[in-house]
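Sample entry copied in:
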Amino acid sequence: MLRRLSLAAILLLGGREIAGSRQQPSTARTLQGSLASPVGSYSVDADSTLVALIKVATDFKLPMGIEWIKRGGVVVRYNHSWQVTTVSTIIQDIVASLPGYEVDSTGTRSVLHVRPSAFQVDNGDIVNAHVGLFQVKNELVEVASRRLQRLAGTIVMPREASQSPGGVAGSVGTGVDDQKVTFTIEDGTVRDILDRLCLAAGLKIWIVAYPAVATRTPAGFLRTASLYNDLPIEDRWQPTWNLLPWGTPRDLK
């Protein structure tokens, strides 16, 4: 009962969005209305619980942020059917199949979060880190996301960052779901900014993955992992995450 009440509670804004920024396209009322929507019949048959969550987010148009601990190559399908239920109950049932996970309502008012409950108070979880003022001025979402990654990298690996001043060369793939956006967040966390990015355009889901066996950087932050393979990510590329559109994901590991 307490878990369902927490899911239905109003989501509190973590970072303060500066007046004059573009209004968020989704609101807490829209999210809460979607979660309370009745569902007559629904079923999920997915390669994993992560894919099941993405499917529900897609089918019911829910902006979602997921922190996901990988299972070390173990494949666990998720198959379940519901009759006369709500979107909220479907999500709660899926998350209940993941020991130690919770539906969390920290952050912006319009994004549903799923994460290991222990991460809520872990100062080594990079998405909890405050990054101060973050401005996006007519940038593609993926470009802004890459810039946020570099900024988060100076927190995760401060020594390495100080030894490598200047910009980082590279390319960013974009598609029809990526659009140019403008907003400013003051005193926000990485989570707040990821939420704002996924609300800004067509990339409606953010996922931060972690290896099955947790390790930490010298600064004490949990290392992140790739969604698409099991190769370790070098510290100079930490942290990493993915922004995805609603749809059917492929090749997730």
